[in-house]
């Protein structure tokens, strides 16, 4: 629950100023955020030159093999780049205006004489909102920076400066939040990036022996391409596997991290600094039923379809097919994805 001095007006000018300050961040800072994306783009561009020019045209002598190499390579590359583009440039899911607490209600909260009264004010305002999760002290989840009631599974991103629907994490490699709107694209990006690296590494293996034995002229790009693709593949396989695991259990990175802080909350929950640290990394606490890390899990197939949709023909195509609106999520005690929910 938020803590405010009694008898004062809510300082909405301060929170508004904080939001405006985030929006007016310096040009240098905004540019630096794109460096990881530019680095990835540069690596992809160089790998294209190394594979297509150095390997396929200068090294591979069999015409049929060269054509097969290039056909499959470009098919994987298109899906890889398409998924990456969607992940980077898809707008984050923003909280609708009806979740924002009016100024009059904020002033009432400040003038409240105790936290119980503050809690009742928020509960009254949120009774018409579709929220079923609560904070550690069983109050409505409220964001003091955005001045709104947080929808279920939404969290405040300190980098973007706003609350984001079903926030998984903020990824610097895509300069974007991984959230409800682009989570499918992000997983496809990881999968196609892994497939790209494995294919490139496997394609260069036969020519590594020829390079070492001197049967072909030294090709620095081919040698370096092999080691770079292997290095990235090793990094991607664990990350991709982890997010597939999260999808099948219908959890997010923030939700999964809750288990790390479980004992910390139990032993130090009386201290406010501990509460603030673990609030975003805890197991979801439901209004009825209490904490349940599997509260949103509907079974592996339904969990998969929640992210990838119910049309199997589009599961692995980076187009939007996720079910729901990012605000209301069915729980285990509710029938998964009724017609009314999906509408």
Strand content: 5-15%
Helix content: 40-55%
Order the strands across the largest sheet as they lie in space. 1-8-9
By secondary-structure content and strand pairing, the structural class works out as: mainly alpha
Shape: elongated
Q: Secondary-structure element sequence?
A: HHHHHHEEEEEEEHHHHHEEHH
| Rg over C-alpha atoms, rounded to the nearest angstrom | 25 Å
Parts with pLDDT < 50 across at least 5 consecutive residues: 259-280, 335-343
Largest sheet: 3 strands, antiparallel
Overall average residue pLDDT: 84
Measured between the Cα atoms of the first and last residue, the distance is: 33 Å
- Structural domains: how many: 2
**Tally of strands:** 9
Helix segment count? 13
Written overview of the protein:
The chain is mainly alpha-helical and 343 residues long. It is 53% helix and 6% strand. The protein has 2 domains: 135 residues, no CATH class; 139 residues, no CATH class. Strands 1-8-9 form a 3-stranded antiparallel β-sheet, with no helix packed on it. The chain has a two-stranded antiparallel sheet with strand order 2-3. Helix 4 runs antiparallel to helix 7. The two termini are 33 Å apart. The C terminus is likely disordered.
